[in-house]
Amino acid sequence: MSAQDIIRSIEAEYYKKETPEIYVGDTVRVGVIIQEGNKERTQPYEGTVIAKRNGGISATITVRRIFQGIGVERVFLVHSPRIESIKVIRRGRVRRAKLYYLRDRVGKATRVKQRFDRKL
Question: Where do the coiled-coil regions begin and end (predicted)?
């Protein structure tokens, strides 16, 4: 058994089974577990997926939202134990792999066209 096989078998334990198909341009609601003192709660973070990195266990999505007139981006590890849930709210129709151009847009120009699929 090679070293890569050992690493894969260890990583397999930490993969999340219930992850939806996430595409760039989708609007998602990510439930993040926040720890305050000795209490834990789930805080929703809703925004548009502007980038996606597929790296097996280290796969990430970058979610952008506008908060009090300022653009806020967060990078989430998809398989992290701190992520409780990821829910796709609406599908976006885009022609790019990365939507970094949305950073320069303001107001209604940041909207992404909706993609209508049978599954959602």
Answer: none
